[in-house]
Amino acid sequence: MDILKIDHLGIAVNSIAEGKKFWSDILGLGFEGTETVTEQKVTTAFFPVGDSEVELLESTSPNGAVAKYIAKRGEGIQHVAFRVKNIEAALNELRKKGVQLIDETPRHGAGGARIAFLHPKSTGGVLVELCER
Ligand code: CMX
User: Does the C-beta of 80 come closer than 6 Å to ligand 1?
Assistant: First the structure.
């Protein structure tokens, strides 16, 4: 499978407005505005860093994946996203290798990306996102 780069690091926060104070106001990263992905019950904010990005994730619902993550572990890095050339080919390869997929087929993510998650139980405890743009 062709993994091109780390696309972004997803960081779960209670509030993007609060999180932005560190990532943008203090570190000086650019702020590209927010986007709500209703299907994922999350509002996202991207901060470009060189060829990758930091993504802050604020839940839109108490039963969303990000809210559940914060309730269990507190704020912090929630997932690592790899940019792949062909997401279907990557999922097929991982399926054959016995990796537990959360998404059998790609779904819609922020910024028009097609994304799919791999289960942390199959990856040594890290929620991994594949992302094709
Ligand atoms: N990183 C590492 N481990 C995680 C995790 C994370 N982000 N989220 C959950 N886990 C662990 C839990 O700690 C738990 O481990 P134990 O069984 O050892 O306690 C295990 O995975 C299962 O967790 P759970 O609480 O039983 O199940 P959930 O209902 O919380 O579901 C998961 C977990 C990963 C399947 C679910 O959160 C999911 O489908 N995530 C993918 C979607 C997502 O996170 N979307 C938000 C980002 C949107 C975007 O970037 O666009």
Answer: no
